[in-house]
Amino acid sequence: MITKTLKSVAFLGIFLFMVSCGETTDTVESGTYQGTIEEVEASKDEIYVKTDDNKTLELYFKENTELTRNGSTVEFSELKEGQKVEVEVEKVGKRLDPISVKIME
């Protein structure tokens, strides 16, 4: 009985930890979206974008992701929280692959 209770408490603790640490993200159809960068995780080449229709997109950059500002290619380090961006994504299962990211400002 105690073992079963401890397992339940441990599971609940892990679940709550994952929910509190994880950011809820949305999956959208392939296409182009505009929004604002909410978070940049440089160590993972990842950004979170809040779209104009209030969805949060989690985007992991790939080798072929095109990142531009004013028509010129720029480095990932140019991305900052609060920037307006236009992203073109491809839906692959539940994952969104960024094809291109344009810094709008």
From TrEMBL:
This is DUF5666 domain-containing protein. Residues 1-22 form the signal peptide. Keywords: Signal. It comes from Salegentibacter holothuriorum.
